[in-house]
Each structure stands twice: as C-alpha cells, then as structure tokens.
C-alpha cells in the first residue's frame, strides 16, 4: 500500500509531500484512514531531533482520529469502518510484567507511533490493535485527537494517585496540557488551583475549571499557598523554584511532573522527609485508562480547545505552535 504523507527529509527541513509503501498488514495490526491529527510539542521535539532518536525522513503525528480501513487476521476487538483514535504508543509486547499487570505504557519494549516509524501526518497510519481505541460517538472526532496524548497525559495521574473529589489540586501551566487538566479536575470534583505566569490568563483559567488562580511570579502569592494542596500537577516546561511548590503541598502531598522541565530539579530533601511529601512523574496511560478517560470525557462533555489547520498548511501550523500562540491545541484536518 502506498501512503501519502508529509515528512521532513532531514534535520531543519520543512515538511513536504512524501510517499512511502507499507508492507503487508500483520496479524494483529490495523490500518487507519486518518481524518484528523493533533499536533503536540513532542512532534516538534522529534522534528528538531531534540531527543537524539529521530530518523529521517520523519512523518510526525501521534494524536490521530480516523476510520479502520483494514484489519489483520487475528484482530478481534476492532472492525472495519469503526472510528478510533491512536496516541503516542502503537505497540507493546503484551507478555512482560508491566503489560500483564495492565501498565502497557510502561512496557520496556513498547513502540511509539513516531519513533522509528511513520506517524499520522498522512492519509493512513498503522498500529497494533491494543493501542487503537474506539472513540465514543458523543465525542467530536475533529477535536478528540489531542485527548490521545495531551488528555491521557494529565488524566492518568488522577487514576494512578487515587485523587479524590475532596482533594485540593494545583496545576502549573495553563497550556495544551494544563487547560485539559483544569477541565478534568473540575469534573472530578476537586478544588482546583491554577498557577500561571500570565496574569491575563486568570479569567480564562477560571472558565476552564480553576477555583483559585495564583500568579507564579508573585512570591507572596506563592507563600500564601503554603500547606494547601494534596497534589500539584506540573505541565510546564520551565525551570521554577520547586521549593516553593513543595511548600504549597500538605503532608503526604505530591509534586507530579508530566511536562518536561529543561533542567535538573533541585530541592532540599528535608521538606520531603518532614512531611512525607514526594516527587513523581508519569508517561501517558495504558489503553484501559485511555478508555476510562474517553468515557469520562464523553459523560462530562470535556473536549480540548482547538485551532484547526488543513494538512496542506502543516508548516504554518507547526510554526504557530512553536511560537507559543496556540490556544490550546492544534488539529490538522483533511
């Protein structure tokens, strides 16, 4: 099968039309006709080879929504014509400790949709059955793509850390990840605090779900938050004074990272020991938790706020994201 895609042929090159051939479909694989695909900062990181693992020509795209076009002989849970989504992961081994206990996203040999293979900036993308998730009918397929990366990234910690509706939760960074975190946490029933370095976003943060907004550049405002939060979810990619955020945690509180901060995290250990606080991080979520997220989003009518571009304007869309102007996710559509 010939696939029409958009690829960067070398580091620093723009995306241009690119054709490649897929081999015969594997027994457990499916081909998805792409309807739309979100753009994530991870696409930019891979495009620029920030992580040193990009292979060119490189086809980005790991927030796919589309229709099953064909299935392998041993596929049992998906059907041709079904609308589905595909995120960062495209395969996991299925037999290691992590897969067998339901944490497929921690599989040490997991395959990523855009690492060593071509992604969803194309008319067709291929993946293994276990990571292709049916889309609830009530979710808009045009806006649902970012849920398969940005959405599950911020929803997974709610499940992993048993967050309760009575908990007080803070979110650092009101962007592509953070705005979804506010929506999920409000629907979960939590008291939600938004930390933002842009005071003009205060009203927007409240609209998205924050009960309280703190200017992260105001030392007194940060000090006033001391001992008030059970969890702080950091979605930002900035170096901050982590000691102040650790101080904002209640005993047994947790500072949890889903954004990739640029530098090493520096903090004193004593505040962690004295109040049994912790630091942690997580990568996306398993297929089962992704299904739970989609069900929860459908029930509570949660969707990302998106701007749309045509696939032919992919370089313009990437530049818009890189400039920091996206509000809050970008979706490419055919």
Written account of the structure:
The protein is α/β, with parallel strands linked by helices and 334 residues long. The protein has two domains: 197 residues, Alpha-Beta Complex (Quinone Oxidoreductase, Chain A, domain 1), CATH 3.90.180; 130 residues, NAD(P)-binding Rossmann-like Domain (Rossmann fold), CATH 3.40.50. Strands 3, 4, 5, 8, 9, 16 and 17 form a seven-stranded mixed beta sheet that branches. Strands 12-11-10-13-14-15 form a six-stranded parallel beta sheet. A two-stranded antiparallel sheet has the order 1-2. Helix 3 packs across helix 4. It starts with a strand and ends with a strand. The model has no long low-confidence stretch (mean pLDDT 96).
What is the count of distinct domains? Answer: 2
Amino- and carboxy-terminal Cα gap: 19 Å
Unreliable residue stretches: none
Sheet of most strands:
7 strands, mixed
Hey, roughly how much beta strand do the residues contain? 25-35%
CATH architecture of the largest domain: Alpha-Beta Complex
Structural class based on helices, strands and sheet pairing:
alpha/beta
Question: What oligomeric state do the depicted chains represent?
Answer: single chain
Radius of gyration: 20 Å
Report the CATH superfamily of the largest domain: Medium-chain alcohol dehydrogenases, catalytic domain
- Relative helix content: 10-25%
Number of strands: 17
The number of helical elements comes to: 10
